[in-house]
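Retry 2 of 3 after timeout on previous attempt. Resubmitting structure tokens to design endpoint.
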């Protein structure tokens, strides 16, 4: 039992050691060093050894794994979502924008004021 726990702990630390060695030299860990079980893809657990990988954005196809193309794109920062376009402000004198009148045309459509006292 002890021997299998020690073996498991050592096996879990091997990719971590490779990742730390890669970071010390200023380079990101290689795909092969992150792919601890050599299945050709990086799981979220395997990617956790590289703090630079944001798995949720790097996994572009949402299958729960990073293939080599997704991993390369995450290194380049290509998986960051593009900012959503924002609307531009409209001038209050723009004739194409309907303006609210100061006096309502239908008194029934005017919201009633709240007459209930606030709770304390």
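Retry 2 succeeded. Sequence:
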């Amino acid at each position: 039992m002890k021997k299998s726990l020690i073996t498991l702990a050592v096996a879990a630390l091997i990719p971590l050691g490779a990742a730390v060695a890669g970071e010390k030299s200023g380079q990101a860990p290689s795909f092969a060093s992150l792919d601890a079980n050599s299945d050709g893809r990086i799981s979220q657990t395997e990617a956790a050894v590289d703090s630079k990988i944001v798995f949720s954005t790097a996994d572009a196809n949402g299958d729960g794994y990073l293939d080599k193309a997704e991993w390369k794109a995450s290194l380049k920062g290509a998986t960051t979502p593009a900012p959503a376009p924002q609307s531009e402000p409209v001038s209050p004198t723009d004739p194409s924008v309907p303006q609210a009148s100061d006096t309502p045309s239908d008194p029934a459509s005017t919201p009633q004021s709240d007459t209930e006292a606030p709770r304390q």
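Attempt log closed. The beta strands are 42-43, 65-66.
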